[in-house]
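User: Teach me something about this protein's shape.
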Amino acid sequence: MLVLSRQRDESIVIGDDIIITIVDVRGEKVRLGITAPPHIPVHRKEIYEAIKREAQNGRRGGPSGEVESLAKKREDRSQGGQAPPASDEEKPA
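Assistant: First, the predicted structure itself:
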């Protein structure tokens, strides 16, 4: 694991097209802004794990409401809809 120190408004570049910027630091929380091409999915880890679980469950019998709800929010956002953000961490910078 590469560990880097950054201050507010400083960035890290991954490859040619992913930029992670430190947007704010509040106590022990760090807010990150992530710029990536639309074809690269970006999720919080717990959401990513839920999607993976649901994909496995789907192979066994169909998706549950958790992933359907997440997929609906993502679809609404990508189509310009106003789905409410789930938390501060998901609000665009």
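Now, about its shape. The beta strands are 11-14, 18-26, 29-35. The first strand starts at residue 11 and ends at 14. If you'd like, I can walk through any region in more detail.
User: That's plenty for now, thanks!
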